[in-house]
Specification:
Layout: H1 2-17, H2 19-22, E1 27-37, E2 49-51, E3 54-57, E4 62-67, E5 76-86, E6 94-100, H3 108-112, H4 123-126, E7 142-148, E8 179-184, E9 196-202, E10 210-220, E11 231-238, E12 256-262, E13 267-278, E14 292-296, E15 299-304, E16 323-333, E17 339-349, E18 363-364, E19 367-370, E20 377-384, E21 398-408
């Protein structure tokens, strides 16, 4: 007994005090490499298009692959990396890397093959926005990473490119050749216990589109006693319009309420929430700060304004961004060393503008809420974006939100 207690104490000290000795070398799994995501109805007709191990849906805008990851018994950290280049699309577009939950019933593969439809929903609740929440024999896809393509990175990044060469500001010494994002997805490891489909969606409408590399890396503990907690992921909502779905402007008219249940043995329950506003026009949901309010059973648990003010720092990734000239008064040091002031014209790129929780070329980090004290049983999550605006003809205002729960079993 004494030996067992000593072993447990030694293990606790090693886990908490010696992080350098806790981990082995990472194991990498390449999901996609130089894989096109595009819109080409001729070569990628409606339905399912198989190209080797890759499956295309939505005329090429979605690519899927079935994967199996190694079995890890000890504590393991996981990271997702995505590298993207334009293959000729000059625009900024929303993107999503996701996993289709195993044993989830109806999937987007069934929808694409006309084998099934999204579950019928109460139109008073979700305005015929099919497939955004759980339904009969259906669970929405879980986002591994939300990202936004920059304007033309890679394809238009040469210094003598006829489109972008004269748009490069003096403070950028050269256009980036690609953009890479990495996020920790350790909390989502339980989604990979079985063989699952991982996919990438990009909202492109050009036949050139983009090319992506996607990789998962796993770092397992080197300590025998460092056991992996058994986690569960419960998808709640996902308004990304992957396949046969509408732009979700529902938040401009009502709060969205999602029912879910917590089992008795759930511990350390946390809510993850991803939100980005879109619209692409002045005054729309993309370019106007708006509060997001999340409540659990009527009690507010999160209130924040998803807004990025650092978009100018992504300028090197956006060679095809539109540029305007703005006049302003500039203080500077003259040729004789004296301080002078004069009016100048300064370039302002579209990619510099602040946006609703994203920049062209950025990923989106989930917000996390620790639901301490939540009890087993039925609950309701309410998502409110009270200042959002409805779609108006070509003003496609909408919010892409996804949320899921993580708990220890």
């Amino acid at each position: 007994m004494q030996k067992k207690i000593s072993f447990m104490l030694a293990c606790i000290m090693a886990v908490t005090l010696l992080p350098a000795q806790r981990t082995n070398k990472p194991v990498a799994l390449n999901l996609f490499r130089d894989t096109p995501v595009l819109f080409n109805p001729t070569d990628y007709p409606n339905g399912i298009v198989q190209k080797g191990e890759e499956i295309y849906l939505g005329n090429g805008r979605i690519v899927l692959k079935k994967i199996n990851i190694p079995a890890f018994r000890k504590y393991t950290e996981a990271a997702l990396s995505i590298t993207l280049v334009s293959n000729g699309d000059p625009w900024d577009k929303s993107g999503s890397c996701f996993v289709i939950p195993a044993n989830g019933g109806i999937t987007m593969l069934d929808i694409a093959a006309d084998r099934a439809s999204y579950p019928n929903l109460d139109t008073l609740r979700y305005e015929q926005l099919a497939g955004i929440v759980q339904g009969e024999n259906y669970r929405p896809a879980v986002e591994l990473m939300r990202f936004m393509t920059p304007f033309g990175v890679g394809h238009f990044s040469s210094d003598d490119d006829s489109v972008s060469a004269r748009r490069r500001p003096v403070y950028v010494d050269g256009w980036a050749k690609e953009v890479t994002w990495t996020q920790d997805v350790t909390d989502l490891l339980s989604l990979f216990r079985e063989e699952v489909y991982v996919g990438v969606f990009i909202d492109t409408w050009t036949p050139e589109g983009y090319k992506v590399d996607v990789a998962l890396s796993f770092t397992e503990s080197g300590l025998r006693c460092d056991k992996m907690p058994k986690l569960h992921v419960e998808p709640l909502i996902n308004t990304n319009y992957y396949l046969g779905q509408k732009h979700p402007d529902i938040f401009s008219r009502q709060d969205v309420k999602i029912q879910f249940s917590i089992p008795r043995k759930a511990n350390n329950v946390r809510l993850k929430y991803i939100a980005t506003g879109h619209g692409g026009h002045s005054g729309g949901d993309e370019f106007r700060p708006q509060e997001n309010i999340l409540s659990m059973d009527g009690k507010e648990v999160l209130r924040f304004t998803p807004w990025r003010t650092d978009c100018a720092s992504f300028r090197r990734f956006n060679p095809t961004s539109g540029v305007w000239l703005q006049k302003r008064t500039q203080a500077f040091i003259g040729e004789d060393g004296k301080r002078e002031v004069k009016e100048i014209e300064e370039p302002l790129a579209s990619s510099d503008l602040s946006r609703s929780n994203w920049c062209p070329g950025s990923d989106v980090t989930p917000e996390e809420v620790n639901l301490q004290g939540i009890i087993p049983g039925s609950h309701t999550l309410t998502i409110s974006i009270p200042e959002s605006t409805p779609i108006d003809k070509n003003k496609l205002n909408h919010w892409l939100v996804s949320a899921y729960l993580v708990w220890e079993e």
